[in-house]
Amino acid sequence: MSGSHILVINAGSSSIKTALFDGNLAEVLRIEATGIGGTGALKIAATAHATNLPDNATALAAIFDALQQQGIAITALRAVAHRVVHGGTTLTAPCRITPQVRQAIADCVPLAPLHNPHHLAAIDAVETLAPDLPQCASFDTAFHATTPDIARRYALPDRPDLTGLQRYGFHGTSYAALVRVLPQQSGALPKRLLACHLGNGASLCAILDGQSVATTMGYSPLSGLTMGTRVGEIDAGAVLRLVRQLGLEKTETLLNHHSGLLGLSDLSSDMRSLENSNNPKARFAIDHFCYWAGRQAGSMIAAMGGLDAVAFTGGIGENSSHIRNAILDKLSWMGNFPSYTIAAQEEIQIAREASNVLTTDQKGQNDA
Ligand code: ADP
Questions:
Q1: Ligand 1: lining residues by beta carbon, under 6 Å
Q2: What distance in Å separates the CA atoms of residue 37 and residue 52, rounded to the nearest whole number?
Q3: Which of 42, 75, 87, 233 lies 20 to 30 Å (CA to CA) from residue 20?
C-alpha cells in the first residue's frame, strides 16, 4: 500500500537518487541510478546491478520499473518531491509544482544549466506517467533567502541587464535539516552557528538564530571552498584570462570538473582516496581544502559577530574526523566552542517539506 508514501527524487546529470518514505516519514526504500551515459548501474537498497543507462530518461524509467517490482505504483503515491538546485529570486520556499512553478524553474535554467534541466526532465516524466499525482519541490537556494542585501549583492551597477547576478547560496536543504535536528544533540539551537556541508560540493553557512545570514557559495555552486572537482574561490580576472585562452566551454569544464581536489592532487576528487594516499600532491590538496575552509570560516564568523558552535555534515563532514579536526584547529583563535557531527538528511527534509506543503494545501481547501 503506497497511498501515503512520498517519493523523493534528486535528479542530477550522471545520477538519479530516489528515496521512498512512508506515511510516518520513515525511509523504506532507496533506489539510485548511477553512471548515466557511461558505466550504468541501478542500486536497489544495498544491491547494485550493472545495466545500460544511456540517458536520464532511461534511468528514470528503470527506477520506476524497479519500484513497480517492489509493489510501489507511482500513481498510488501521495506525492513525488523533487530536489531543485535553483529557485532564483522567486521560489524561496518549498511548494507544489503548478504550471507556473514549473515555468519559474525553467526560467532558472540559465542560473543552473548543469542542474535545473535534469530536474525539469524528472518532473515532466512523472507528469506523463501520473498526471494527477501531486508533485512538490524543495530548492537548494531557498534557505538563503534570509541573507541581507549587503551579503547578497555583488558590487555591480543596478542595471536591468544585470538582473539576477547576485549571491544565491546552495545546500539549503541540508542546512534546513541541520537546524531542525541539531537541537536533539545540542539542546537549544546555538545562536551563532557555523554550519559546514562538506561533500563533493562543499560550502559553509553562517546561521544566526536559525537563519542564513551568509554563505560561501554565490551566483553558482562553483565559488567558495575548494571542492571535489570545482575550483572554489577564484579571481574573476583569472576566469577572464581562461575564457580568452581556452574559450568558454573548456573554461567551464576546467573550473567545474577538473579543478578542486582532483586538479590539485592529479589523483582523485575523492577525499577518502586522498587520505589513503602517501602522494605529496594528495597531502597538499587536503591541506588546501582545510586551509580555505578555515579561512572562509573566519568570514562567516565575522558575518555573525562571533561563534557559539560548529556543525559538520556531508560525506566528508560526517566521516572524516581528520578533516574536522584540521578545520577546528584553524579556528582555535576563537577559544572554546562545541562542535557537532550531523548525518546529512536532505531526502527526509524534502519529504517532510512536501508533506507540510500538501497538509497546508489540504487545510486551505477544507477551510475554503
Ligand atoms: P555529494 O556531495 O556528492 O552528495 P557526499 O556528501 O556523499 O557527496 O560526500 C562525498 C565525499 O565524502 C567524498 O569526497 C568521499 O571521499 C568523502 N567521504 C566519505 N566517507 C569518508 C571517510 N570515511 N573519510 C573521508 N572522506 C569520506
A1: 199-201, 228, 270-272, 275, 314-316, 319-320, 344
A2: 8
A3: 87
